[in-house]
Design goal:
six-stranded mixed β-barrel, 18% strand, alpha+beta, 23 strands
Amino acid sequence: MQSLTTLFVIAVAVALAVALVGLYSSLLLDTPPGVSNAERVVSVGRTDGERFEPLNGRLQSHLRESSIGLTGVAGVSYLRQEARLREEQRHLDIGLVSEGFFQVVGVRLVEGRILDASDHGESARVVVISYRLRDQVFGDLDSPLGESITIQGERFRVVGVTAAGFRGVHRDAPTDIWVPHQTWQNVVAAVPAPLIERLPLILFGRIAKGTSLGALRENLSSLQERLPAAAKEDLGGMRLAVSSTLSRDPAHQQMAERQLELFALSAVLLAVIAAANLSLFFLARAPKRQREMAIRMALGATHCRLLGQMFVEASLLVVAGGLLGLLLSLWLVTGLKTIPTIDVDHWDGALIDTRTLLFAMGLIALLAAVVALAPVMDLRRRTILERSRPCVTRIRVGQRLLAVVQVGVAGLVIAVAAFLAMALAQLLVQGPGYKPEGVQVFVLQPDVDGPFRPDFREAPNLHRQIRERLLALEGVDAVGFQNAVPTRAHPEQQPFRPENGQKETVQAAALVGRADWLRVLDVRVLRGSLPESDDELAVVVNRQFALQAWGDIDVVGKWLQPPRHLRGGDPSRVAAVIDDLSFGHPAEPERAVVMLNTLGVMDFAADVLVRGELSQDSLAEAIGTVLADFTPPLHVTERYALQGEYDALLAPDRARVVVSTAAASVVGAIALLGFFGILRYMVENGRFEFALRAALGAGPRQLRRQVMWRGLVLGFPGLVFAFLLAAIGLSLVGGRLDIAGLSQWPAILVAITGLALALWLASRGPARQASHTEPGKYLRDE
């Protein structure tokens, strides 16, 4: 039974360590496939110290024209569209790239050519496709070059195929085709030319040789001071920033990487502690073999021979457990790839690479040495007489230190798990500021067979027909329209000038659209009332904006001036103040928001939000009947439940709780196993003393109390160390995992209380064993 326990514990510890280190190696040490010198490519954006947001085309031009240590700057934005490929319609993930994208990134091709400067004009209709799309759609052809792809009535010609494995610079945005940004906005989306340069772009650049990341940051700060007023306005009060992380959201990706680092280090520490505890477990078994060892030494066996025997016995068990752990790690990696907290949804790397295999071999060797260490040292310390009779109940200094360390680490991990669970509970209670349950969202797009020429003046008529058609259905409570739907959109920051405000300008996320969608989301109105559809001059602000602009939420009737490109900059009247609502994760810092009760250029195809109990199929059918008779033709390309999207935002938090709880359970179990092993060793090694006490009149209750007291003396320093370690660790974890504003003391109290109870329970087994000592059995040879 002990051997099976050893085998299982080692297998679990090795599997967890190898899986997490393997993910760390493949995700953070490997470069993106199909990219040359990826370590020189950086993300460029703007930040306020908490968020990292994209820039736009105008700022991209300033970066290109300035000597700041970048050999090139390029941008990309992403969208998903329905397209026709070889008479088949399918959804494609599209990357809209600015000029120089492939040169800056260093993308390698297997066929054709990259997009050059001439491909970014209005007349160009060319694309580069991924190797994956080539295999899926054009696999039966010798070459896909020259084949056409039709998107919204526009035919694009394939001119290149990227290298195998490359699906974009950003792991979190796998891409099928790359289209020139300028061509798409001019020809397909029909965006007015003055607005194109204001559209957001996720920028990245290639660092010049001899330029460090620190020097680049200094150059960006210097450039920001020299920017013209219009460009500074585009920054929205933020500062230019650069990040070595290639992600649409570098801050989020860095947080995910820090989580993976913490998990990997914790797993390795867990494996070492597991080995040390198993060493104590073997040591607890050693007194039963001491007579055997004494007889063998009396017959001439040397220390080296006995040491070798014990090392081989431990090593065989550890190696067998390690090999089983390697097999388990293959299964565990597959499961970890689906955990949102690690952000590896699109990882296609090998399950275990060479680095990870070498690490696994080294770890197994280390664990074998650690497991054999305590029994070997105990054997070297004893004389033949001591080996022949267990008689000492003293717990050695090394055992005490190990008990303190393992109880402390267990307390830290349990406290972290409790802290993360409390953080999740707080998020669930806090909510996003709206009610996502029961809300269905329908995404509208133009027909792929016809060009899209939107006329936003027709939007009110379309919205009215859809609303009337849906509200006529039983079970539909409210209908609204909005392009920037929470959970999927992050509205761009814009400067607003409040009348007689505390500040001259306030940066706020700007939204355009009728206020009906706020009614669908059941947003809480703090002051005033939501404006009607025909009140063009009305705006709705959230609590955060009111406090920043005027220092109070009683601001209904006050005026503010939007930027010139929003409704011509005409002053607008505050009609209502609503509670703060989150467009992303509810733990993100609260942002000022202004919603203009008017229609924008792209509101013609705004998403339809419906609250009610009717099924998605019935709602989509009803919307389709209205769209079929409308020109230009639109159709529903996607539908989803807002509750599902909100749950997806919280998935990393739930995953953190699951992973940390599992880790706490394993670490706690291993720590208790080691603690139990130390006390059991004391009892087994002190049978003679317990038998003598029993012969002198000590009853089972007294013997139990003696062992329980020694368990308390052994565990108390570990609890104190656990308290200190948890207090320090949680202060760091809250910042590293973007958890702030939550007291750590309840989590520490839960961890210490639970651990103390567990140590008490672990002491009962050895105490019961000591109370059953039979004096006659152990004193008959004296």
